[in-house]
Specification:
Helix content of chain A: over 70%
Distance between the termini of chain B: 57 Å
Strand content of chain B: under 5%
Strand order of the largest sheet of chain B: 1-2
Largest interface: A-B, 50 and 64 residues
Structural class of chain A: mainly alpha
Number of helices of chain B: 7
Number of strands of chain B: 2
Largest sheet of chain A: none
Order of helices and strands of chain B: EEHHHHHHH
Radius of gyration of chain A: 67 Å
Oligomer: heterodimer
Order of helices and strands of chain A: HHH
Number of helices of chain A: 3
Strand content of chain A: under 5%
Number of strands of chain A: 0
Shape of chain B: globular
């Protein structure tokens, strides 16, 4: 396969060279001076027009475009930098404000807490005072009642026992003696209860 | 056998014969392709320069990229002093490039494959550069032929060599472009002829060669235009910034 390709290549090259040499015998049209002047003439005209139009019209426009683009991009970068700085400033301000407000909030909170605590303490003190007063009052009443109740019971007991004796015997008994007896009895009862 | 591969370089008259005195300046197929190339350049770059938008469209981008490409090429090789010659080198580069590229279209005529065209361009560049050199440096421009740091014994020889190399610049510049274009197009024609003569059996090999050659020739078309422009820049650099 490889051999075939190499042989084919050689054949082609040989044939190629043959044709080129055959053509050479016909001469190069480039060396025929018949149209040289015409070619020079038209070259000068076309290249001259091309050069003039490119120089006067098109190239200034392109360089203008490039310049304006460059300056515009630079401007944009500048404004972007400015805006960045501004935004950085704003961010700083914002952070400052947040910090301040945080501190304020903390102080407000502390104040409010102190106030409330004060209030609570005051109210508690008042309440305790009230409660103490009431308790002492009630205690007084209770002690009063306790003191009075013994006498009353003795009185009632003496009255009822006097009436009972009157019913049973039909005769009035000295109330003072009855009261003395009741007192003795209640004392004995009390001693029994205590025991 | 394949038709004559040199036939494509024939110049023939289009339209009537125009005579300026006794000189024949008729419009030929070569003139036609010069006009077509110039018109194409003008149309493309005019469209590309028309709009002034921040974000360029395709044609605008093309024209601006070529502008900065040539500008960079000039500033790299000839420095900032060469700025006034930008538009000439730009037109030269574009003209040669478009002529080369239009030559790649089948049945089209390649303007730059004619020695007379490339020689006129090169001679114009040579004369222009020499005039610029003498205007900028006066007779001091002749120092170009006397390199510094050469022993006195060798100096006469070196000066002769330098003068010959300077005088051969237009020839080397024009022949380089012309020979490249002619050789490439001849090769393509020859291989194209083989595709026909070898037929469906053996024609595939030259056909694949032809395809590869087309790609190569497009590369050469660009490269030769670039070389032509950059050599102009280098000659201009010699004239503007005398190093010796």
């Amino acid at each position: 396969m490889l051999k075939k390709i190499v042989i084919l290549l050689f054949v082609t090259c040989f044939a190629c060279l043959n044709t080129v040499f055959a053509a050479e015998s016909g001469g190069m049209p480039q060396l025929n001076p018949e149209f040289w002047i015409s070619q020079i003439f038209w070259l000068i005209i076309t290249f001259g027009i091309l050069f003039t139009i490119l120089t006067k019209v098109i190239l200034p426009k392109i360089s203008d475009n490039l310049e304006t683009r460059k300056s515009q991009i630079l401007e944009n970068i500048e404004t972007a930098d400015k805006q960045k700085e501004e935004s950085q400033k704003k961010i700083d301000e914002y952070e400052k404000i947040i910090l301040e407000s945080k501190l304020k909030a903390k102080s407000y909170f502390n104040e409010a807490r102190e106030k409330i605590l004060d209030d609570i303490n005051k109210k508690r003190a008042a309440l305790e005072k009230d409660l103490d007063e009431e308790i002492s009052e009630v205690e007084k009443e209770l002690s009063d009642l306790k003191n009075k109740s013994g006498e009353k019971i003795n009185k009632i007991a003496a009255e009822t026992s006097a009436e009972l004796i009157k019913e049973l015997i039909g005769e009035d008994v000295n109330s003072s003696s009855i009261a003395a007896i009741v007192e003795d009895q209640s004392k004995i009862n009390k001693v029994r209860k205590d025991v | 056998m394949a038709s004559n591969p040199m036939y494509q370089f024939n110049v023939y008259r289009i339209g009537p014969e125009i005579k300026l005195g006794s000189v024949d300046i008729s419009f030929t197929n070569a003139s036609l392709f010069m006009v077509i190339s110039s018109l194409a350049i003008l149309i493309i770059f005019n469209l590309g320069a028309k709009k002034k938008t921040l974000i360029p469209d395709k044609l605008q981008l093309l024209s601006e990229l070529s502008y900065s490409f040539v500008a960079k090429m000039i500033s790299d090789t000839a420095g900032s002093k060469a700025k006034p010659y930008f538009s000439f080198i730009f037109s030269l580069f574009m003209f040669v490039l478009f002529c080369n590229m239009f030559g790649m279209i089948p049945y089209a005529f390649t303007v730059t494959s004619h020695i007379i065209v490339t020689f006129v361009l090169a001679a114009f560049i040579f004369i222009g550069v020499t005039i610029i050199g003498f205007i900028k440096h006066g007779l001091g421009y002749l120092k170009l032929f006397v390199p510094s740091g050469v022993p006195m014994v060798l100096l006469p020889l070196i000066v002769v060599i330098e003068i010959i190399s300077y005088l051969s610049r237009p020839i080397s510049l024009s022949v380089r472009l012309f020979a490249n274009m002619m050789a490439g197009h001849t090769m393509m024609k020859v291989f194209g002829g083989f595709v026909i003569s070898l037929g469906i059996v053996g024609g595939w090999l030259p056909l694949s060669f032809s395809v590869a050659l087309t790609g190569l020739e497009i590369l050469v078309a660009f490269l030769q235009a670039y070389v032509f422009a950059i050599l102009t820049c280098i000659y201009l650099n010699d004239a503007l910034n005398l190093h010796h």
